């Protein structure tokens, strides 16, 4: 027995409607999956109150003495004579240190400017404005280490340094670029007080 022609013609719109609904469901499911995957993998902006946490996770906590020991270990093969000076360059490493403010600051010394010029040529991936941001040096000390001058970015000198008192400990986030005549070249780009 053959189905009635009228019944078949009434079924065609239903089949078409089911097919459109099925296709829309598949498209919608795919679109939702893509959006969820994109949201899960896209970088998230870190809220301002978590800024310190993000710096702490990017900068390896260590001590100045450990950096000095590493510098001594690699000294033999990496010393480059530049004029009358001995320079050691290392790929920039990020460290988080605890240091004590010795109460003195000054504009960048000639030796620091020399090192910056040499390092800027040696590390062309570091933007020039990064090097230009270091405008002053502060005198700091760390446990078991003599006081040393540390170049700091202008933002650090204008925000934190005025709040510090002589002998106060604080946390500093640095890039270690090497040595200049046995002086560790630790460049501070952020700092936190311990209050």
Outline the structure in words.
The protein has six helices and seven strands; from the N terminus they run ααβαββααββαββ. It is α+β, with helices and mostly antiparallel strands and 195 residues long. The N terminus is likely disordered. The chain starts with a helix and ends with a strand. 43% of the residues lie in helices and 34% in strands. A hairpin with a 2-residue loop joins strand 2 and strand 3.
Largest sheet: 7 strands, mixed
Number of contiguous helices: 6
Please give the number of β-strands. 7
Termini separation comes to 92 Å
Helix content: 40-55%
SSE topology string: HHEHEEHHEEHEE
User: What would you call the structural class?
Assistant: alpha+beta
Q: What Rg is obtained from the alpha carbons, in whole angstroms? A: 30 Å
Assembly context of the chains:
single chain
Show unreliable segments. 3-18, 26-50
Large-scale geometry: globular
Beta-strand content: 25-35%
- pLDDT averaged over residues: 74
Could you list some keywords that capture this structure?
single chain; 195 residues; alpha+beta; 7-stranded mixed beta sheet; 6 helices; 7 strands; 43% helix; 34% strand; globular; disordered N terminus
Summarize the structure in short.
With 195 residues, this protein is of the alpha+beta class. It has six helices and seven strands.
Topology record:
Layout: H1 5-41, H2 51-58, E1 60-61, H3 64-78, E2 79-82, E3 85-107, H4 110-122, H5 128-132, E4 134-141, E5 148-153, H6 154-159, E6 169-180, E7 183-193
Parallel strand pairs: 1-3
Antiparallel strand pairs: 2-3, 3-4, 3-6, 4-5, 6-7
């Amino acid at each position: 027995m053959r189905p009635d022609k009228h019944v078949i013609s009434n079924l065609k719109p239903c089949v078409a409607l089911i097919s459109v609904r099925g296709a829309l469901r598949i498209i919608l499911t795919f679109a939702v999956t893509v959006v969820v995957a994109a949201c899960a993998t896209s970088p998230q902006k870190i809220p301002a109150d978590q800024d310190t946490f993000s710096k702490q996770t990017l900068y390896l906590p260590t001590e100045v003495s450990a950096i000095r020991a590493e510098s001594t270990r690699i000294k033999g093969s990496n010393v480059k004579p530049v004029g009358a000076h001995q320079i050691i360059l290392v790929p920039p490493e990020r460290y988080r240190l605890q240091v004590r403010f010795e109460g003195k600051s000054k504009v960048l010394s000639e030796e620091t400017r020399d090192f910056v010029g040499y390092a800027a040529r040696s590390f062309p991936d570091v933007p020039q404005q990064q090097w230009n941001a270091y405008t002053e040096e502060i005198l700091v000390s760390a446990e078991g280490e003599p006081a040393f001058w540390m170049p700091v970015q202008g933002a650090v000198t204008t925000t934190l340094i005025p709040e510090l008192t002589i002998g106060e400990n604080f946390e500093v986030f640095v890039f270690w670029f090497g040595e200049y005549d046995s002086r560790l070249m630790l460049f501070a780009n952020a700092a936190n007080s311990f209050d």
